[in-house]
Write a structure and sequence with these properties.
Layout lengths: L13 H19 L12 H6 L4 H22 L4 H16 L2 H15 L3 H9 L5 H20 L5 H18 L23 H12 L7 H26 L4 H22 L1
Helix pairs in contact: 3-4, 3-8, 3-9, 4-7, 5-6, 5-7, 5-11, 7-11, 8-9, 8-10, 8-11, 10-11
């Protein structure tokens, strides 16, 4: 963007843009992980909103941490594949404070127990976990655990990084298609802004990039099946809520994550 004279305004200089995106990345790490950053400056509302674009990059970091734990357990300590896989899943959950798993459980409870749109939203806001949420989490985590344990060992690190990043890219892309379902945006004000243009491009690029760690045929298949899962989630949210909530984003991430793992297992 240029001013009347054709000069680039100081606020839009490359240095200013890099500084702005750096703050957004820090905000993403603070929002979507439990990594302590005591040196981080105070974040503004704009920083938190821009952070959504960098969610997939945080996923890359989470995937690397999980892959590191898996490698240490399987190669360094010589633990059985099932144990190493369980520790890798646990590492991913600990790194994010179970943020996405919590959203998945809330959606299971809300969509399972609510008849009307208002019922679903009210149940999802309840901090207590019900039967649907517990059963959903057991099945979700159990499936991830078993799939990782069954994958060829040489594929596991790339699978963890690719799935964690790409699934967050799909989740962020929901903001480009659906509108926020709640009228009270105070609880979800940082995830209720539409993702467009350059911000959407950042999310797509950082989400899709790690898929290149996989063999080409597996990367292509994962992209197709993950997109199908994303479309299914969006259709479900649109039909039941007319939009999305923060819990829906977590659910999309979890479902796309599991879809990538299952795809890799079926084709590896």
């Amino acid at each position: 963007m240029t001013g009347p004279s054709g000069a680039v305004p100081a606020g839009d200089s490359l240095r200013a843009r890099l500084h702005r995106e750096g703050r957004a990345l820090v905000a993403a790490v603070l929002y979507f992980s439990r990594l302590p950053l005591p040196w981080a400056p105070a974040m503004t509302d704009d920083d938190w909103r821009r952070a959504m674009s960098w969610w997939p990059l945080v996923g890359t970091g989470v995937g690397l941490a999980a892959a590191g734990v898996w490698w240490l357990a399987s190669t360094g300590l010589g633990l059985p594949p099932a144990v190493a896989a369980g520790l890798a899943v646990a590492a991913g959950i600990l790194a994010t404070g179970a943020l996405q798993e919590d959203g998945f459980a809330d959606v299971c409870d809300g969509f399972g127990g609510g008849r009307t749109r208002d019922d679903v939203l009210a149940i999802m806001r309840d901090s207590r976990v019900g039967t649907y949420g517990v059963v959903g989490l057991v099945l979700l985590i159990g499936l991830k655990w078993q799939v990782l344990a069954a994958l060829p060992a040489g594929l596991v690190p790339a699978a963890l990084v690719a799935a964690h990043a790409a699934s967050r890219g799909w989740a962020a892309a929901v903001l480009a298609v659906l509108t926020y379902a709640r009228t009270d945006k105070s609880r979800g004000r940082y995830v209720s802004s539409r993702l467009r243009g350059g911000r959407l491009a950042i999310a797509v690029a950082t989400g899709a990039g790690p898929l290149l760690l996989l063999p080409p045929n597996l990367a292509a298949a994962s992209l197709v099946t993950g997109t199908i899962a994303w479309i299914a989630c969006m259709s479900w949210f649109r039909r039941r809520l007319g939009g999305y909530t923060g819990d829906c984003l977590g659910t999309t991430q979890q479902m796309c994550d599991l879809t990538v793992f299952l795809t890799l297992l079926s084709l590896a």
